Amino acid sequence: MTEPSRRRRSAANSTSTAPLPFCFRWISHLNRREAIRQQCPMPDSAPKTVRKETAVKRISKCGISLRLAVALFASAILCNAHAQTKEVWPSKPVRFVVPFTAGGSIDVLARLVGRHLETRLNQPIVVENRTGAGGTVGTDLVARAPADGYTLLFTAQGPLVLNPFLMKRLPYDATTFAPVTVVVEAPNVLVASRQLPVSSFEELRNFAKANPEKMTFATQGIGTTGHVTGELINQQAGTALTHVAYQGFPPALTDVLAGRVSLMIGDTINLVPRIVSGQLRPIAIASTRRSAVLPNVPTFAEAGYPAIVSGPWYAVVAPAGTPIEIRHKLADEIRQVLGLREVQDKLKELGVEARGLSPEEFDVYLKSEYKRWGGVIQKAGISLDK
User: Fold this and answer.
1) The domain 94-175+323-343+357-380 is classified under which CATH number: 3.40.190.150, 3.40.50.720, 3.40.1160.10, 3.40.1180.10?
2) In sequence order, which residues have a C-beta less than 8 Å from that of residue 88 and are 6 or more positions away?
3) Residue of 23 and 210 predicted with greater confidence
């Protein structure tokens, strides 16, 4: 090999971040003209036509046809380009689409996580609020986005496991999203007005049997996690709590505080401050274990109803077909962010608990939630269709 050839080979090796594909080792033989000349010498005085024909024969004689050489070269370029594409993600800003209003709890969490992810990924994380139709508008936008890891859905579970059963016509198929991770969860809490003379779930059940007309529960609206949790309680505990739907949290809270509605079901994000201040009396929390932010509130399991587990969970999903390598990297980075002291303090302040599931764990969880809530909604006959 000549000195210039060695320099070119050395330069190529120094700029490569990974070993060359196997096919490049074949192709390099074709460039070793000196070796070929030694094996198949050809007089310089031969006519040009003869020289061309002899060159083809030399390649064939070395065990590689010209057609195969071209195919190998093309394959090498393609596989190397594919490898480089996977290695560089992300090479541009990543977009978190939040299908709910700015300033809400999920928006706050998306921006909190996004701000720290920017440092880890060395790319901007743009949070974009696309509201409408109970999260359907933003969710559909992501469903139609390219599966390249640059447009992701940061959402509560509603658009993924509730809306498919609440609405007959959805513009997207909720079962096709590629799971990334569950970021946090906020268990639902059953609270009572101070005017209601109960302090435990057993007392509530007994009071409900004697006073069925007084047992109403307020939520932020039809089809919310609070609503379906109330129906889950009815189905599991045999109660007959009557749902009273409001347009948001503030008016619901006002009527419960005034005693016009006896109960309320909401997440820890909204209810912890009212419980700590003594405005509302906690009855039970719908989680598998007691909450760190409400350690004195028993779970429904402690009252004998382990199936009453519910509450908003906030997750990241990607368009169908997004490579698993990208999803693993993003899930790992989010898990690292959740371990930061600053983030942990903020999560505690918000009343939520970090999760950080892997894509595989989230896939199993997502399918189980889809099946579970589908059954509850269908049995209760809840619908958002007018």
Assistant:
1) 3.40.190.150
2) none
3) 210
